[in-house]
Amino acid sequence: MKFYWPLLVAVLAVAAAAASAEDVVGRPIASWQPGMLDIHQISTGRGNAGLYILPDGTTLLVDAGELAGPSPQHTPARPDDTRSPSEWLVRYVRHALQHDPQPKLDYVLVTHFHQDHMGEVAAGMPVSPRGYILTGVTRVVEDLKVGKLLDRGWPDYNIAAQTESPFMKNYLAFLKWQVKENGLQVEQFLPGRNDQVVLCRGPRDYPQFDFRNLAANGQVWTGRGTDTEHRMPPPETIPRKNWPDENVLSIAFRLSYGKFKFFNGGDLPGIRQNSPAWYDMETPIAKVVGPVDAAILDHHGYLDAMNEPLVAALSARVWTISVWDAYHPTPSVWERLQSERLYPGARDIFATDVHREAQTAIRDIDRLASSHGHIVLRVSPGGDEYRVTIVDDTSESHNVTKVHGPYRSR
User: Fold this and answer.
1) Is the pLDDT score of 177 beyond 60?
2) pTM of this prediction?
3) Count of domains forming the chain
4) Which end of the chain has fewer surrounding CB within 10 Å, N or C?
5) Is residue 237 in a domain?
6) Residue ranges making up the domain that contains 220
7) Segment holding 389, helix H or strand E
8) Which residue, among 299, 307, 368, has the nearest Cα to 328 in the 3D structure?
9) What is the CATH number of the domain that holds 65?
């Protein structure tokens, strides 16, 4: 049998180019390809939402925030306010999953129960025929096929901080109908585990992938097996004035793909503000998480988050900020991210948007690698390198506006 080496080389070159999904400024972002890991931080101007497309095509949506607006404190709605944030989110997800003839979210993960992560309830919002209001997560599950929902409270939500709030009552009504009538699978996110978010479509092809649950409900992984440390006292022993807010109870995880590592800590706080010592959830995580290549800022970079131990431990090459407020980030957090005292070397910071007040408050905010747009981390097959692609968020063109990298994974 005769081999035509030039033809073989050409075929392999085309295959390699396709696998790396090179993005070109001014053209629509390339589709996900098998073996890649994509992490989309979606810009709506009204809350947090991240779409993860794992190496075998498994899909995970982390949060689906929806705040009513507009407000001077908020960034502009993206692309605009002709649709609700969750409607824009659903449309974005469908476009990002166009490579799949039967698009599906294998997992939806709610990091904690705040409106900017799960959906606010406000007058005039549409109501599902099932009886609950369509906002944030409830809209996503209504409009897209979803395999499993993970949150920190299921099934009894006995330590939910705001069970009587309209948005929490709406979420519980949604769960009741979806579980009973539609068969939605729901699980409580359990710290220490690495078997709750797994590859669903081809796990044997990517043994170098791992998703480790780091924290939830005041418990933090110890770094040993599945053991956890209880950072929070038993709820019944805590005076009501010291009862934790949702941020303290937030979910955190670390995703690994080969050499590449990514951290998401939800809205965890790390700086005590006249609060008990156990409000600092970042310091114990800093002891076990290790260095990562990229991370999203805890609590959007607000003043109570991203403490020195965590910034130093993560020592990320790439930081992402999910912005919807004038204080995302605050100047103190910005200074810690830039500090070479905490860790040496280059670092690039990307924000989904920058509020005009932040531009005034942070004198060197122009050091941002990108100040607006969807932020897409694209990790090459095997995890040895990654790029950051910025996508226009002012329309549904999905056009690339910037490409940074490649960066080498640690």
Assistant:
1) yes
2) 0.94
3) 1
4) N
5) yes
6) 32-408
7) strand 385-391
8) 299
9) 3.60.15.10
